[in-house]
Write a structure and sequence with these properties.
The chain is built from 16 helices and 13 strands. By secondary structure, the chain is of the alpha/beta class. The relative contact order is 0.14.
Amino acid sequence: MAKAGNKKRKICVFTATRAEYGLLKPVMAEVKNDAGMQLQIIVSGAHLSYEMGLTYREIEADGFKINKKIEILLSSDTGTGAAKSAGLASIGVGEALAELAPDIFVVLGDRFETLAATFSALLLRVPVAHIHGGELSEGALDDSMRHAITKMSCLHFTAAGQYSKRVVQLGEAPSSVFNFGAPRVENIRRGDLLDRNGFEKAIGFELGEKNLLITYHPETAGSVSNEFCFNELLLALKDLRGAKLIFSMPNADAGSRSLKKMIDRFVSENGERAIAFESLGRARYLSALKHVDAVVGNSSSGIIEAPSFKIGTINIGSRQLGRARAKSVIDCAAASDSIKKAIARLYSKEFQNELKSVKNIYEKKNTAANIKKVLKNCDPASLLVKKFNDIAF
């Protein structure tokens, strides 16, 4: 906690992945630019991995000072490795929080690193503000971790009304829940996105008449082989002629390495129409959404960000099962025939006409500014006194 007489409120933000940082960036900028607040940043996980692109550099390039870098990733691609990494995260974040002594600790989402970091903050009695709680993604272990983080948090910034209701259903006080929308969507309106020619130069790849962004992550909660499911997607893409394919590599979940090898093999065999990136970075990723016809895979970006560009999303399998979505999202099974039918629907005149009227349910005005206002004006000491909010059944 902040020492007496410290005029600036210290807000510590935790990030462990490239996607997570992109979501947090608008809030971080709001805090940094407020004269009455001090931004602290703890970076961990995939940000510090050479294999994952050393994406902490993007944070620094954006003008942010990283206060602590905590190495936790092991040379492992298993659940055991993730469990050990979570232990290292808990130790490292605990030590960092003890030293930085923030007034509020800000976390986002549902990853194992975030769960470990939140647990450390709870033990140190640092109030936690959680962004993107109350959501469902039943095809991933993230679902359980997200709800656990909610119960250890004191402030809740949700992205949609039904998610606010779910947080309250979990026993959180309605007065602690704020439906301000998804901060990641603000990146679309704030950033200067590249035009088609600039984007092609930035990625060293010429777009075609049809273009798809492929982003697929392991399903961590099911028993179906991730390799089998992803191969079904590649089989569908192999038969798709006349389309350029941009792959964004999967995140640091158990099972990701085998998928990366499959992507590398596919790109090497289809180099004239396919390219892959360990990390596009937020600017190039959002620019990609501006110029492609759809996001294909099972990433939340296809549900939360893509609708703002009025493009389609082909959502494969169960990873995002339960998450609220716009009518621009086409759900399909992880089977090549099902994926082919979804692609055919994507390019149909009827569906393309429907996209023109799509509204993004996650987009609200002043999301980051409203989050910052709550962080600045709340009483951190009172946040730690939590009572279970019973609801009438």
